[in-house]
Amino acid sequence: MATTVKEIANALEKFAPLPLQDGFDNAGLQIGLTDAEVTGVLLCLDVTEQIIDEATALGYNLIISHHPLLFRPLKKITGSNYVERCVIKALANGISIYSAHTNLDNAQGGVNYHIAYKLGLKNVRILVPKENTLLKLAVYVPISHEEKVRKVLFDAGCGNIGNYDCCSYNINGKGTFRAGENCNPYCGTIGDIHSEEETRIETVLPAHIKNRVVRALLEAHPYEEPAYDLYPLMNEWNNAGSGVIGELNDECDEKEFLLRIKEIFAVGCVKHTSLRGVPIKKVALCGGAGASFSNAALASGADIYITGEARYHELFDNTQKMIYAIIGHYESEQYTTEILHTIVSSAFPNVPIRTTEISTNPINYL
Ligand SMILES: [Zn+2]
User: Considering the domain 108-129+241-327 in this protein, what is its CATH number?
Assistant: First the structure.
């Protein structure tokens, strides 16, 4: 059975839903048709002309990158820069390009969790949880269908709070309604006010699965016109967001820890602020350009904050209280292809897949 681009995109988006991406981003399918049959998958951090050549030579027609090739709309495609040349080359060779970017950064188990795993951190959690992404659902169900509807809601993705699932609050009461002329009521009589013992089920859901949840609810609920309410919540969503924080198993000397980072991420040169003479236990990090989350790292009690890149002036704040370690954008995110590999190869074991052998890091260290 042939595997299509759409099927692979669906597997990636199940792990890292596109609505989790940041506002500036452009993750998802960049080039190609969703129903194209995939001959093989090449994984990379950045799409360059050499990467497209590599895929072509392998006979693979799907490139999955972390960084999107296309960020801004193209007004012309004449080959005047590498993005335009890549578009021309990909189209000419029938290659599709898909990118899992900040949606993969922000997902639980995504880029930053993987960096934490490489460092051996435990008790890892999101550093800056996403805001304005949760909804509360309250639905009124006849007691006979309470269990069925609750299960359907949980199966559709409701009720996840931290590492707990199946979270709901249930209270019994009395619902009333009067069915009009053209109704087909599940209970009660047309024209009479009816009262029914019902349960109010309350649960929580991320806003991006709202349509799926409402569809499942309407299918499982026995009433012709189920009554339900959806409220936006001010709560942060701890299951998605920027950066992570975790702890080392044992305290580590700060210089020793910096050397450990240098080795794990094969960094030509670890830039860091002054050592404090305090051992490292709590580690916060964000792959790529994550300097803007350093205040959150400090507020969470981190001894060190690791990110890919930072501007000079971003490094002056809080240096008495926490070390900043800058390990390079490419270096910090290089293991992202391992996440992509696991997702694709476990869902589609028969699709040829490999990680590029080309380093697309434009920065060298002398
Ligand atoms: Zn990046």
Answer: 3.40.1390.30
Calpha distance 46→359 (Å, rounded): 9
CA 36 and chain centroid, separation: 25
Q: How far is the CA of 254 from the centre of ligand 1 (A)?
A: 26
> Average pLDDT, stretch 149-155?
98
Cα(150)–Cα(165) distance, integer angstroms: 12
Q: Per-residue pLDDT for 143 more than 80?
A: yes
Q: What SS3 state is found at 255?
A: helix
Q: Give Dmax (Cα) for the chain.
A: 85
Cα 68 to averaged position of ligand 1 atoms, centre (Å): 9
| Average pLDDT of every residue of the chain | 96
Does residue 111 surpass a pLDDT of 80? Answer: yes
Centre of ligand 1 from the C-alpha of residue 333, in Å: 6
pLDDT digits (tens, 9 = 90+) for 40-84: 999 999 999 999 999 999 999 999 999 999 999 999 999 999 999
Q: How many CA within 13 A on the CB side of residue 103?
A: 23
Angle between helical axes of 5-15 and 336-347 (0-180°, round to 10): 120
How much distance in Å is there from the Cα of 274 to the middle of ligand 1?
26
Judging by beta carbons within 10 Å of its beta carbon (0-12, 13-18, 19+), is residue 332 exposed, middle or buried?
buried
- We find that the CATH architecture of domain 5-101+335-355 is 3-Layer(aba) Sandwich (3.40)
Report the C-alpha gap between 105 and 353 in whole angstroms. 22
Q: What's the CATH number of domain 132-235, 3.40.50.1970, 3.40.50.300, 3.30.70.120, 2.60.40.1180? A: 3.30.70.120
> For the chain, where do the domains classified as CATH 3.40.1390.30 start and end?
5-101+335-355, 108-129+241-327
CA 336 to ligand 1 center in whole angstroms: 10
Q: Where in the chain is the domain with CATH 3.30.70.120?
A: 132-235
Model confidence, pTM? 0.90
- CA–centroid distance, 136 to ligand 1, in Å, is 33
Alpha-carbon gap, residue 244 to 287, rounded angstroms? 10
pLDDT at 187: 94
